[in-house]
Amino acid sequence: MEEIGGGAYGVVFRARDRQHDNRVVALKRLRVQASDEGMPLNTIREIAILRRLVGFEHPNVVSLLDVCCSRRNDHEISANGGVSLENCRHISRQLLSGLDFLHSQCIVHRDLKPQNVLITSQQHEMRLLPEEQQNFIRSELALIEKESSDASHTGYILQLAKEFDEFLALRFPDVKRYGLEGSETIMLWFDTILNEVDKDNHVTIGMTHRGRNNLLVCLLGLRADIMFGKMSEFGDFDVVNAPLTEQAVVAFEWGYSIDHPNNLCLWEAQFGDFWNQAEVSVDTLVTCGEQKWGLQSSLLMLLPHGYDGAGPEHSSSRVERLLQMTDSLENDNINFQIMWPSTAAQYFHILRRQMVRNYRKPGAIVMPKTLLRLPESRSTFAEMGPNTSFQTVIDDPSKNMKAKRVVVTAGKHYFTLVNERAKRGMQNDVAIVRLEQLVPFPAKEIQETLARYTNATSFVFSQEEPRNCGAWSFAKPRLDFISGRRFSYTGRPEMPTSATGTGVMHRRQLVDLLEDTFKL
Q1: To the nearest 10°, the Cα dihedral for 450, 452, 454, 460?
Q2: Residue 331 — very low, low, confident or very high, per pLDDT cuts 50/70/90?
Q3: Domain annotation for the chain: domains and CATH numbers
Q4: Which of 230, 379, 459, 487 sits at a 20 to 30 Å CA gap from 103?
């Protein structure tokens, strides 16, 4: 047996079936880890696709126990000095034929690459391997009406009734999984907000890959009322495909939110390089429109922000610039709000709060996409039910008032610190406090929280951003003044860019900042 290909969810081997004439088969070993996004749902989906195709015979689509090639295509091409024009045409015709067959079965292949196209070395016969990232749309939609009342169902629309009049959970393809307490809950969608707005109002978001998957359903001619029919009882949910002219789009969304104050209007920047192009509109309209013209906007900008070793534009939302554009008051009379939630429940409460309060205020939600699949950031219904609300400051769950050091942080960095503290066995020595909102700065809440740690002799603000970025310059004077203590800094050093973009350097910097954070 030899490895002939692989991907994110598994590895393909060349093997021989000894029970059937020792014939050559492609053996795929699937990697299933529940902590990864889409697992094991994508694995189950791939198996379902292959089982469904057993009853069909097509010469250009691999099926269960079908004969495959002996080597990966890129190896084959390299070994033979390329592919002739005639063979290239032959392979292309087979590829198109295989794709046409998959489309006829409502299967969309979204990961075409050499590792997923198997070719025999002699006759150049092609087999297209159905990858795990396909959208097996129709079979999932068929389950909706049949199992929509089943709380364990993970289809597109799930109706639940638990401590609420009616809950709707919408899961976009390959993005969200939904469950009850103790299950694979990642995030509760904006469901109860639909119950707050009138039928004539709209909940709109700028389109990302989730929205494009939605659009794909419509393009395939599937019934939109199956996916969204039950939502018409509350309000309208609109997904808008925004062009890549971010300056104009944000200006439009700001104006739309002013004319429609009862609508929740969200604009998501897929990464920092999208948000950077919208800064002119943010500077001149969003952050100061109320001061200039007395116009209240409810626009929320969803800005991905988190350090995982990627480059600057894929790591930072330049939150330091947003902080500079706020008037920084410690009350609700501010020009712009900035939230940094670390859990699904906190995210849910921010969105709900944006619509149920009696005034409108624009703002930004800063959080990384990795929290969508981080198990520690999951929340239960109990954290989103009655008598719960957004917490601007979250104290250390251990409530260890004998801690020698108090670390204040924000966002995803909290989970990095918690894991490192556990590795070092310092749960009794270090308390970690989360700032979930930066503007308006929660002065009262942070003062009450820090005052509990009477035995602490060291106070630290830790961030994953460079020293000249992130929230350090904004939070430092406020924390010092409120607590009467002198906060020290742990984080990356000053840098000309917001992130290195180099994995080795990223990990080296992380080791250094963690050492500084827990060195008593």
Answers
A1: -30
A2: low
A3: 33-136 (1.10.510.10), 149-383 (3.40.50.970), 393-518 (3.40.50.11610)
A4: 230
Half-sphere exposure of 305 (CA within 13 A, CB side): 30
State the Cα–Cα distance between residues 498 and 140, nearest whole angstrom.
41
Task: Express as a percent the part of the chain with pLDDT over 70.
Answer: 63
Residue whose entry in the numeric block shows the structure tokens 């948000």:
275
Contact call for residues 3 and 29 (beta carbons, < 8 A): no
Question: Comparing 64 with 127, which gets the higher pLDDT?
Answer: 127
Higher-confidence residue of 406 and 66: namely: 406
pLDDT at 33: 53
| Edge-to-edge strand list for the sheet holding 10-17 | 2-6, 10-17, 23-30
> What is the sign, positive or negative, of the torsion defined by CA atoms of 334, 497, 315, 276?
positive
Which residue reads 């939109």 in tokens? 224
Long-range contacts of 411-414 (CB under 8 A, 24+ apart): 411/305, 411/306, 411/340, 411/342, 411/366, 411/367, 411/368, 411/464, 412/306, 412/307, 412/342, 412/367, 412/368, 412/370, 412/371, 412/374, 412/464, 413/307, 413/462, 413/463, 413/464, 414/342
Residue 362 predicted with pLDDT over 50: yes
Identity at 397, one-letter amino acid code: P
- Is residue 168 classed as helix, strand or coil in its secondary structure? strand
Which run of H or E residues covers position 136? strand 135-136
What pLDDT digit, counting tens, does each position of 74-122 carry?
Answer: 455 555 555 676 777 777 778 778 877 877 766 666 666 666 666 665 6
Q: Are 349 and 307 in contact (CB under 8 A)?
A: no
Q: What is the DSSP string of 215-271?
A: HHHHHTT--HHHHHGGGGGT-EEEEE---S-HHHHHHHHHHHHHH-TTSEEEEE-SS
Cα separation, 236 vs 200, in Å, equals 7
Residue 483 near residue 450, CB atoms below 8 Å = yes
Reference 233, options 323, 156, 148, 168; nearest CA is 168
Is 402 marked within a binding site? Answer: no
Alpha-carbon span 210 to 176, nearest angstrom: 9
pTM (whole model) above 0.70: no
In sequence order, the β-bridge partners of residue 176 are none
Pairing of strands 430-435, 393-394: antiparallel
Distance, in Å, from the CA atom of 425 to the CA atom of 518, rounded to the nearest integer, reads 11
